[in-house]
Amino acid sequence: LEKGTSASRGTPAPVSFDASNHLAYSPPSSILKMQDLKLEPTALSDVATTEPFSLLSYEAVLQHRRELFSKETLDHCLHHTRPGSVQVRGAAPRYAPFIHQFWHSPELLKIVSDIAGVELVPALDYEISHTNVQLGPDGLEGVRNTPIEPPVATEEAIQRLKEDSKRAQVVTDQTKPIIEWHKDSHPWVCVVMLSDARHMSGGETELLKGDGSTY
């Protein structure tokens, strides 16, 4: 990975949400229904999930990272509950005003509501932009040095990924999951990648279908 710009150690400069600058929405290629996952529809909707789609502009990604990895946010909102990762939660609106504006904006809420087929609003400010951060070789201290700009893969890493992709894919060992099988606390979540995943190996979200297979 190439080193990016170091994250700010102080409070980020205020940035106001602007839909024309901070949204880059492109509809998902497909929307999966509960039946597609061999599950029964819920009382809320028969929509289960979508294929990945573009939502945040690059500027919005950077501002999310500025607020999430600021010293003030990490001092007050960093939680370490699993060996290989940490969580940042409870930052909005006090430490992350832009993130609070983003996820409360009518433009964003219309996008996710149209996809879900029901009107969606944030349930709790505390849960807005709950962020999972994988720990690297520098452990907890490395989180405080997370760059604002998402690092990009080196040519060596890209070539290694190409070679790995030629090999047979191995199903995740479910006896040693990074995060165990679970249902989120809220009926609807919007999972956003704040890293450059174009040449990333691993890190996928795996869904357990009703027949025991995965998607």
Characterise the protein shown here.
The chain is α+β, with helices and mostly antiparallel strands and 215 residues long. It contains 7 helices and 5 strands. The longest helix is centred in the first third of the chain and has 11 residues, at 58-68.
Provide a brief overview of the structure.
By secondary structure, this protein is of the alpha+beta class.
Pattern of helices and strands:
HEEHHEEHHEHH
Number of strand segments: 5
Could you give the distance between the termini? Answer: 29 Å
What share of the residues does DSSP label as strand, in percent? 5-15%
Fraction of helical residues: 25-40%
Mean of pLDDT? 87
The assigned structural class equals alpha+beta
Strand order of the largest sheet: 3-4-5
The low-confidence parts are: 1-8
- Give the quaternary arrangement of the chains: single chain
Annotation field: number of helices: 7
- What's the shape? globular
What is the C-alpha radius of gyration, as a whole number of Å?
18 Å
Main sheet, how many strands, which sense, barrel?
3 strands, antiparallel
